[in-house]
Design a protein that fits this description.
Domain DUF6705: 1-147
Order of helices and strands: HEEEEEEEEEEE
Helix content: under 10%
Radius of gyration: 21 Å
Organism: Flavobacterium cupriresistens
InterPro entries: DUF6705 (IPR046551)
Number of domains: 1
Largest sheet: 8 strands, antiparallel, barrel
Protein name: DUF6705 family protein
Keywords: Signal
Strand content: 35-45%
Number of strands: 11
Shape: globular
């Protein structure tokens, strides 16, 4: 009887060891771009650190504020988990607030207007003046006008001795069927913004 008990315990422990979810670094390419079910894509080298905070661009009576944070082990689809940088924004034009999603940012946020974990190194994909070892983020970006989605590059820098980021936003083109109304323009304009950390 004692042997059966020991064998049962052995198989229970073996099953628990085999059932653990694999952990990969976030720089590991996801299998078929979908990831492995139950896996955790973790920021093991802390490359997503240092972006947290509130950053502001101002030009006369126009201001653009972005708030970023690192969220750990989040999942949008319960298929796999990942560490992400997420964010929300406020845009004021000519002194009038056009959009403000800042209150949608929480430590458990997993669907945000700014979201992702793609790390680019060096001059790869459009940074001709980046150092060969310099890292920057390329994240998804959604305007509050639904069809306006695109990407945002975030590059750390300093301005006048203060921490800052250079943000480049662009939108994917949207196809329009003949006879249908033109899509609304995005509230947040595509372009490059230098934003000072507050």
């Amino acid at each position: 009887m004692k042997n059966y008990f020991n064998i049962a315990i052995f198989f229970i422990l073996l099953n628990n060891c085999m059932a653990q979810s694999p952990v990969f670094d976030i720089m590991t390419p996801k299998e078929n771009s979908t990831g492995i079910q139950g896996a955790y894509y973790k920021d093991t080298k802390n490359v997503l650190n240092g972006y947290d905070g509130t950053y502001v661009y101002t030009n006369g009576t126009t201001s653009f504020k972005i708030k970023l944070q690192k969220n750990v082990m989040t999942s949008m689809n319960d298929f796999y988990y990942e560490d992400l940088v997420v964010g929300e924004y406020q845009y004021i034009e000519n002194g009038i607030e056009k959009v403000n999603t800042l209150n949608e940012l929480t430590s458990k946020s997993n669907i945000n207007h700014i979201r992702g974990a793609r790390v680019l190194t060096g001059t790869k994909l459009g940074c001709s003046d980046c150092r060969p070892d310099e890292k920057r983020l390329r994240l998804g970006f959604r305007d509050t006008v639904p069809q306006n989605t695109g990407e945002i590059d975030i590059r750390k820098t300093t301005v006048g001795g203060k921490d800052a980021i250079i943000v480049k936003i662009w939108y994917r083109s949207v196809g329009v069927l003949v006879g249908t109304p033109e899509p609304k323009l995005a509230i947040i304009k595509g372009g490059t913004y230098t934003m000072i950390k507050q």
